[in-house]
Automatic annotation (TrEMBL):
It comes from Sylvietta virens (Green crombec). It holds the Pfam family DUF4209. The gene is Ermard. It comes from the Eukaryota. This is EMARD protein. Residues 132-212 form the DUF4209 domain. InterPro entries: DUF4209, ERMARD. Signal peptide: none annotated.
Length: 668
């Protein structure tokens, strides 16, 4: 697909005018002393006087306000450039403490002072706005409960107006938070502005305003005796799950050439790509990702608008419309219900879309763009593992939209492992993928049961009234029969056993089934509803396993130390007896879950009645596992009830199996 190579701006004409020209129309020199006291404090009244209002409804007149504030921004910019770094730190550093990101704001001052590259101004503004938004949210929580997710709602809130004053909030809304104003945060984070299109004086002004907010907040806290509490940052766990793309210096060197050749990169945005790769090589992982995410968005937007024949949507939307963002570009259909052609253009739609959904959208994924842009991540400790994957994915996209004939044989060999990994990518954070992970983790937990310390059988047998375990043997036989029936319904080429109760063989089967590739892209609602129930069942099974492990260990220690009373010894014997059938019954349920998952998309073919009957069956299993959690908890220890509950449930499962209503693919 041919992509346009003559794009000179991604800003619509009105937005370009507002950002690049409007604030420069008034050329009068503004005296910095009008808005700055002798000790460096912001004179807010003088600043707010430059915000203009419409006569009709007294709402902010953004056009006139931007024009009026232009000379003020220029004056602040020149003032900051005249300050030595040491003086700035002494005079202003304490006013940034309320943001919990003082170092970030001091770095932004370096950008204002030195101004070596235009990309640094954009990067500084993106970091500044995200940190400022997070800090304002912390202030909001002094007065409210649930902090608004969107910056524009935050700045329009009564809570912040009570702390800072409505006039001060209106000043901020001229620069960020309103689509009618400069809207610098959104224009940058969504990849619309090229490096040369963001005046550095706006970066200086927001730095100045942030210090001024710190001064106002300090006065408010002293007056109200309140304490500002900062919400904790998001901490990423299980980073090994994110390991998808191998990166080394050779690949990065090839990437530096790719960005100059790939049609995915708009020429006006090339400096951002180079800066992102440079930042990664320098170990500035947060900077690298902050620079790269908007470029991935604008590159995909270029593909989206070209493939769906809506070139006008490459530009920033006006205040009356929505931007074309990741959410829409990754959707199955356009707003007019027509098919979105972007996945087709990507050729590996599952790989590209699954990766983007994993890292940007899925609730249990890292949601990198949201968390970075809203200030939820500590920039100083940003994980290399996440940056590695974003950069690796970006390089694969560059390859896809580059002329292969321009690659040397060596470059082909260097990049080949990365491309191979991309083609094999499977979603890690879709609910279906998370269910597979849950099943395997629960299987590992149950695998530990045979290693649990137990009292020798001859000692246990001496407890009067508990001789024999015929009931447990009966339950195990029932489980074996049901698993044998299930084997007839398993997909072809999967392992089948003559010994269905064998734990090792069952675990092997579960691993094979969980390795089955299941479509996760654009899962229909019925599929997701079923997966939610299956995940709840799996979670309950895992909790039962953990409770059994903990309980068995505790009771064994008490037995050895002879601290169990007579009733507790009887209960311990019942526990040991129950463990014999609980292990296979949990593996049976995991097998059921996994078989249902493998054929989960067939649920869409069911008529409404059959679908409701199917959900009723799943909820029966869920109710059993929930009761099992209760009975096996350390507070209850109801092992006789556990046995009776299991017996009733197995009888129902066997009946359902006999009627062939248990597995979804039987209805297809």
């Amino acid at each position: 697909m041919a992509l346009p190579d003559s794009v000179t701006t991604c800003l619509s004409q009105p937005v370009h005018y507002s950002i690049c020209k409007l604030g420069f129309e008034e050329t009068d020199t503004y005296d910095i002393n009008n808005i700055l006291s002798g000790n460096g404090e912001v004179c807010w009244q003088a600043v707010t006087e430059h915000v203009c209002y419409l006569e009709s409804d007294q709402s902010v007149d953004y056009i006139r306000s931007i024009r009026s504030l232009g000379p003020v921004c220029e004056s602040v910019h020149l003032y900051f450039k005249s300050l030595p770094k040491e003086q700035f730190v002494v005079q202003y550093a304490s006013w940034f403490h309320w943001t919990n990101c003082t170092e970030v704001f001091l770095e932004v001052f370096d950008v204002v002072l030195q101004y070596t590259q235009a990309t640094e101004v954009a990067l500084g503004l993106m970091k500044l706005t995200s940190c400022l938004e997070r800090a304002l949210g912390d202030v909001y929580l002094l007065k409210g409960n649930d902090c608004p997710f969107l910056l524009r709602d935050l700045l329009a809130s009564e809570q912040l107006a009570d702390v800072f004053g409505q006039a001060v909030m209106n000043v901020l809304r001229v620069f960020i938070g309103s689509p009618h104003g400069l809207n610098l945060r959104n224009v940058l984070w969504h990849g619309f502005a090229s490096p040369q299109e963001i005046p550095d004086k706006y970066c200086a002004m927001l730095l100045f305003l942030t210090a001024g907010l710190g001064q106002l907040l300090q006065a408010y806290l002293l007056q109200t005796k309140c304490v500002l509490v900062h919400r904790p940052y998001t901490i990423f766990i299980s980073l090994e799950e994110l390991d998808a793309f191998p990166l080394d210096n050779e690949i990065l060197s090839v990437a530096e050439e790719l960005v100059k050749q790939s049609s995915f990169v708009l020429k006006i945005m090339l400096p951002f790509w180079i800066a992102a790769l440079t930042a990664f090589k320098q170990g500035r992982y947060a900077d690298s990702v902050i620079l790269l995410l908007p470029q991935l968005e604008v590159g995909l937007r270029l593909l989206f608008t070209t493939s769906n024949k809506c070139p006008n949507r490459l530009l920033t939307a006006e205040s009356s419309a929505l931007y074309t963002t990741f959410d829409e570009m990754l959707a199955k259909h356009l707003n007019n219900e027509e098919v979105n052609h972007l996945p087709i253009v990507l050729e590996e739609p599952a790989m590209a879309s699954d990766f983007l959904w994993d890292f940007l959208n899925h609730q249990e994924g890292p949601r990198i763009r949201d968390r970075l842009s809203h200030g939820e991540i500590n920039l100083e400790t940003f994980p290399r593992e996440i940056a590695n994957q974003i950069v690796g994915f970006a390089i694969t996209i560059l390859c896809r939209f580059s002329d292969e004939d321009m690659f040397s044989l060596k470059e082909h060999m260097v990049i080949k492992p990365l491309v191979s990994c991309a083609s094999c990518y499977r979603s890690r954070f879709h609910p279906i993928s998370r269910l597979k992970k849950q099943v395997l983790e629960c299987t590992k937990s149950i695998h530990l049961w045979p290693e649990l310390p137990t009292v020798p059988e001859e000692q246990v047998q001496k407890i009067k009234g508990l001789e024999g375990n015929a009931e447990a043997d009966t339950l195990i036989l029932m489980i074996s029969e049901i698993i044998s029936q299930l084997q007839h319904y398993m997909p072809q080429n999967y392992y089948k056993s003559d010994d269905p109760i064998n734990s090792v063989l069952t675990e092997r089967l579960l691993v094979e089934l969980c390795d089955t590739r299941i479509c996760t892209l654009y899962s229909p609602r019925p599929v997701l509803e079923v997966v939610v129930v299956l995940r709840r069942i799996s979670a309950q099974c895992h909790q039962v396993s953990q409770q059994v492990i903990a309980g068995a260990g505790l009771r064994y220690t008490q037995w050895v130390n002879k601290t169990l009373r007579s009733r507790q010894r009887h209960n311990y014997r019942r526990m040991l007896n129950s463990i014999k059938f609980l292990s296979p019954v949990l593996r049976l349920i995991l097998l059921l879950i996994t078989l249902e998952l493998v054929s989960v998309h067939s649920v869409c073919k069911k008529n409404p009645f059959d679908y409701q009957q199917y959900l009723k069956f799943l909820k029966l299993v869920l109710q059993y596992t929930e009761n099992l959690v209760t009975y096996t908890s350390p507070e209850k220890n109801k092992w006789d009830e556990t046995m009776e509950l299991t017996k009733r449930t197995l009888i129902k499962l066997r009946k359902i199996s006999d009627r062939k209503l248990m597995l979804m693919h039987l209805a297809t």
